[in-house]
Specification:
mainly alpha; 6 helices; elongated
Length: 171
Amino acid sequence: MSVNLTEQRPQVARPVAETVSAAPVPALSRVRRLAAEVIKFGVVGGSGVAVNILVFNALLHGLAWWPTPATVLASVIAMGTNYVGFRFFAYRDRASRTRQQIVLFFVFSGVGVAMETILFYAGFHGLGMNGPIGSNVAKALSIVLASAFRFLVYRTWVFQHGAAKRGTGAR
């Protein structure tokens, strides 16, 4: 038996659904971009949390500082390390560094430090979370709550996309 390899099979009409590939869903690409942004924010924020907790514990438990100044100084030091991480890693694709961006970052970070300090104070003094473990739980909870605020304002006002900052779309 011989097989003719030059013979072609008859073409069968296929349904349109099989021949047209689906276009990427714009909402899905936005979700992917947001997920990548949240991950980068988490990496930088996580390193900032580590700095914040380490400095806080060194000041409060190692050097016997008062709790409120210890939390404020730890937060301010973490704020500085976070700026470098956000500017050069998490939001490096955003508009270039400007005086306005730096001012906005430190103003909103200052508001975040104030939020964090108030929340810490409430946990430490109001809820009695004042032992070594309790103070760290109060600190961690205050960081998490203030970080939600920071994420929203950093991405919305501080590290804007170039077109969003100018108020114009692509032309």
